[in-house]
Amino acid sequence: MDRDQTEKDDEASGLGRPTLKTLAFMTGLGVTTVSRALKDAPEIGAETRRRVQLVAKQIGYRPNRAGVRLRTGKTNVISLVLNTEREIMSFVSDIIYGVSEVIADTPYHLIVTPYSRSQDPLDPIRYLVETGSADGVIISRTQPNDPRARYMLERGIPFATHGRTDMGLIHPYHDFDNYAFATEAVRHLAGIGRRRLALLAPPVELTYHSHTLNGFTDALSEVGASEIPFNTVSVDHSIEQIRMRTAQLMRRDVRPDGFVSSAAAATLAIVAGIEDAGLKLGRDVDVVSKQSSDLLHLFRRELLVVNENFRLAGAELARSVLGWIGGATPGSLQSLSKPTGVLAYRRPD
Amino acid sequence: MDRDQTEKDDEASGLGRPTLKTLAFMTGLGVTTVSRALKDAPEIGAETRRRVQLVAKQIGYRPNRAGVRLRTGKTNVISLVLNTEREIMSFVSDIIYGVSEVIADTPYHLIVTPYSRSQDPLDPIRYLVETGSADGVIISRTQPNDPRARYMLERGIPFATHGRTDMGLIHPYHDFDNYAFATEAVRHLAGIGRRRLALLAPPVELTYHSHTLNGFTDALSEVGASEIPFNTVSVDHSIEQIRMRTAQLMRRDVRPDGFVSSAAAATLAIVAGIEDAGLKLGRDVDVVSKQSSDLLHLFRRELLVVNENFRLAGAELARSVLGWIGGATPGSLQSLSKPTGVLAYRRPD
DNA sequence: GTGACAATCTGTAACGTTTCAGTATATAGG
DNA sequence: CCTATATACTGAAACGTTACAGATTGTCAC
């Protein structure tokens, strides 16, 4: 028995990665005590606690994730679920950095779980939940009646959505105020004399489609301008399609003199379409566009822009998920961000 | 003892997530047998093997990652290490999708490990290696003498670099042929009559800086054109800085009549700077730019573009890392991609 | 001096997996 | 008929962690 003990201690002092056993050996305490001392359990003496924590810091002890996960089921993982074909580029980049920023000084890792056009969006969620691969999930492209949100709510797995749902169910979200964006855009266009406005909207199936559309039509009647229908395309369509449809539209007798565009890349296409039709931006027509990086003004000086900050969205979403995991009530983890970096006012003359 | 047995079996048949114990109970075999049967071990009878695999498939058995990881040390994780401030947006998005594509039907997960300007780039690598958080690592912003590559090579952890090193050490990489890009760009500019060329290069510390520069200067002497130095800025500088420096440069007596730009966003700034100086793209000066998404031609019709496919890069990098993990020799996992979607030839007239 | 009780610490078991060292059975060789 | 060997399977131990149920002190009231 003495031999066994010695042998074990020798192993514990080995030069591999330190474990609780290593710490136990070094401090002369039991593994259990060390474990509890590290998490400030009350039944451990103050001095012991400090001693253990000191040694742990000194030798750079880090809990083994697999051990914790196996024992407790806690993965310390947040999963960001992304559509590999339809997400906006800057969205992917910025939201990842936003999330990273928030989880940087936590034990959490960020895993990216992709799904493609051909898959049911519920697939990756089912996978995550069934395999218990994450403590929290962030989803985008949220729908009014979102099966993913419903599914996770039913299983009680913490998540946050980019965009709101409309199912009468409460869950954390972060959203950009697209209603405000659309109303401000319309008001501004009206302010510079534009009367016939077209909206390049988000895809109908996503919640922010109606937010945007409502803001657009409400402001339209407020300012007494009229809508030129432009709903054969959405921001999800290809650059080429949007460009072509815009050009078609601009060649009609009754054509818009103002556009509201929900995405920067789509705006490039709209402008190209306008110019294809031989018209000039700022003279014949004005365009207000959302953008997430400050590049559109380089593209055409005349463009009017509203900024949506995806990095902030990522940070907020991460905070929400961590909050839920930490026991906060879902209803308190909802946020809406207002349009910023407002339109540079300008008269067409 | 009988009671205990029954109790255990009851647990095994429970409705939680199925484990090897569940399978063992259902098949009437031992846990060991089931484990081996699932991985086609030779000492398991053919029928037993099929039977176990059938049941496993039926009840949707998936090995517990924490269990495997704890026992074997295998994490089934690939980590993509990214600089949160300096990566190109479309790079982040596309490379993630490229990697995802390749690991989609493997047990691997992708985790994103970020680091910021203020940190030593080696920090995240050290963290990953010390905590054994990944089976393989992908890094970008590779330097000729890259401490990260050296570090991982020393510890024997599989990795792949986006871009090459120049340390006489062999490791997997994927790189875009920036030498070819620069030579083709210069040749093309010379072909349309441009004689005084400026290069907006990658940051000096990265390996592809010299690749690009060498291609540029080699082609310059080949076609007998001259260089207008433009090395106070790189593609890493802010849009505003590049724009200002370009404008300054274009107001000089001896100014370039051609630009080669290593990044799309920087190209927007160059064009803005050119126009700030009252000059016209396509008439006074031509610009050849790399781009990763097909948007620059919408920006200015006159822009000449070469495409770099980051999604492909991500896929290649993932293949390389998996290959190395799978036992292939590092030297066989290197690839170079040629410029595609060549310049639309056009005369300035 | 005794019992009660708080304070502090500890061993064992379990999470799910794989590996090691077997065991049991059948087959074949002599 | 006995031994050797191959075939097919199995239990125990271990990876690192935490929870549970003690165990060992010391202190204090009476």
Automatic annotation (TrEMBL), chains A, B:
Note whether Nucleotide-binding occurs among the keywords: no
Q: This protein's superkingdom? A: Bacteria
Q: Which SUPFAM superfamilies match?
A: lambda repressor-like DNA-binding domains, Periplasmic binding protein-like I
InterPro entries recorded for this chain?
Answer: HTH_LacI, Lambda_DNA-bd_dom_sf, Peripla_BP/Lac1_sug-bd_dom, Peripla_BP_I
Q: Which Gene3D superfamilies match?
A: 3.40.50.2300, lambda repressor-like DNA-binding domains (1.10.260.40)
- UniProt KW keywords: DNA-binding, Transcription, Transcription regulation
Cross-referenced PROSITE patterns, in alphabetical order? HTH_LACI_2 (PS50932)
Which Pfam families does this entry report, sorted A to Z? Answer: LacI (PF00356), Peripla_BP_1 (PF00532)
* Domain HTH lacI-type, chain residue ranges per copy: 18-72
Q: Which PANTHER family match?
A: ALANINE RACEMASE, LACI-RELATED TRANSCRIPTIONAL REPRESSOR
Q: What name goes with this protein?
A: LacI family transcriptional regulator
